[in-house]
Design brief:
Layout: E1 6-8, E2 11-13, E3 19-25, E4 30-37, H1 40-58, H2 62-78, H3 80-91, H4 95-112, H5 115-118, E5 123-128, E6 131-139, E7 142-146, H6 154-165, E8 169-173, H7 180-191, E9 199-201, H8 206-214, E10 218-224, H9 227-239, E11 243-247, E12 252-256, H10 262-274, E13 284-290, H11 294-307, H12 327-342, E14 346-349, E15 368-371, H13 378-381, E16 388-394, H14 397-406, E17 409-410, E18 412-416, H15 420-429, E19 434-437, E20 453-454, E21 457-458, H16 466-471, E22 473-481, H17 485-488
Parallel strand pairs: 7-8, 7-10, 8-9, 10-11, 12-13, 12-18, 13-16, 15-16, 18-19
Antiparallel strand pairs: 1-2, 3-4, 5-6, 6-22, 11-21, 14-15, 17-20
Helix pairs in contact: 2-4, 2-7, 3-4, 4-6, 10-11
Bound molecules: nicotinamide-adenine-dinucleotide.
GO molecular function, one term: methylmalonate-semialdehyde dehydrogenase (acylating, NAD) activity
Region (Disordered): 482-498
Domain Aldehyde dehydrogenase: 19-478
Amino acid sequence: MDDLTHFIGGEAYKGDDDRSGVVFNPSDGSILYHCAYASKTTLDHAADVAFSAGRAWANASQARRLEVIFRMRQLVVENTDKLADLIGRENGKTIADAKGEIGRALEAVEFATNAAQITKGEYSRNVGGGIDTFSIRQPVGIVGCIAPFNFPVMVPLMMTSMAIACGNAVILKPSERVPGASAFLGKLWREAGLPDGVWNAVNGDKEIVDAILRHPKIAAISFVGSTHVGEYIYRQGCANDKRVAAYTGGKNHMVVMPDADLESAASAFVSAAYGSSSQRCMAVSLLLAVGEGTAEKLRSLVVPKIQALHVGAYNDPKADFGAVITADAKRVVEQAIADGVAAGAELVLDGRGLVVPGLEDGFYAGPSLLDHVTVEMEFWKKEVFGPARGIMRLKDLDEAIEVTNAHEYGNGAVIFTRSGHAAHRFVTEVEAGMLGVNVPVPVPVGHHNFGGLRRSKFGDAHMFGPDAARFYTKMKTVSQRWPEPEQSASSSFSLAFP
Ligand code: NAD
């Protein structure tokens, strides 16, 4: 691929940028291309373009806006193979997994066609003295969308489709690790009939994110990424008077009660824990085995399943999962394993040092499993964004809930049980934004709200679902009276609070 440029005003845009970065193919470690990093001047240009295009788009009819969303949905379907290849090549996830990601992205695009329904206002007739009161929702203006590397198509589409359906213009800053899919999405939006300048993408790293956070023309920020960056973005964005929603890291606990269907729980654990080389914010990180003997039984079920996993290139049809995103990410995962073992965990399966024949320079981390993980260990405290997972042994449900709630993150948590009472206590008492009962990954469907609690989310909006439409619009409440001319002539008035 040629060097990648920004996408501004409906076309590839080469700025006067003097910085750039390298995009790798994690499957073989090769350099795919160089990517220019936007300067402040490039961002100013994108903001000017988005500002004028956005003003017209905000006044486009709802029918016109939704027509574009419907067409975009169709184009994503028709280009699934191309998008899946772009995802896999830059991110390392398998084609099957990339297609799953696109399927989830489509849910968000489809739900964005409900923008008109969600944002319609309320009306009260004759609240007093012939006055009617109604509310209207209008687009906020330009939305800055800052995306992570792990879902190169899904997260950008989740953020931008509802923002656009609500009448905003967007400036997307994709992850500098995987910018290729966003450039292609820009072309699809254009083909879908979106006016030039409503959807823009600028590439770069922290420097351009900081410029977005300060830019006076950008009204709202939607961020997905790690917690330490999300917290910074939330605080900086708010300090600059922007509306901010930041969806951040997770450490998702899977509680298995002794009465659960252990075979099904074991399969759920392996798929939810290792899929996408565990580079999902909703991946299961820890298996909490509750009660005497449960851990031993689960361990004997999960170990052979994990040993059977095949790790390979994104386009290897036999691969269950692929490489991690960078050589550094591989090193961080391997270090987390070493730290866990040094702290007293038992290394049941060691995936360190995995080499895939023929792809010796790829960033591969094999599946690892640690047992006897405890809350004192960094391995429990930190989000390990790679295929190293742990087993914890707990005596009862009380302790399992206590451990789950003791973690700083509250993105997702699941319980496997046959007890309605245990499940009810779990969903009532666990402080996580997305909960599951006998399901492995409780990411809700596109018409429900997505978002964590505690330090897995900053701000009170949700990324998709009805709440997203509220985030991307501002509300005005209007009180109006249309008196006859002779009624207007009345001169009586009072200074008392009406
Ligand atoms: P990251 O925080 O490193 O990067 C996310 C974005 O922020 C990128 O666009 C990056 O360029 C930018 N960025 C990075 N460092 C920055 C800094 N210091 N200042 C300003 N901007 C900066 O995250 P990542 O590694 O791309 O993605 C993985 C993380 O995202 C994991 O923690 C994962 O749990 C989280 N995630 C969360 C969700 C969710 O919905 N809660 C979804 C997907 C991923």
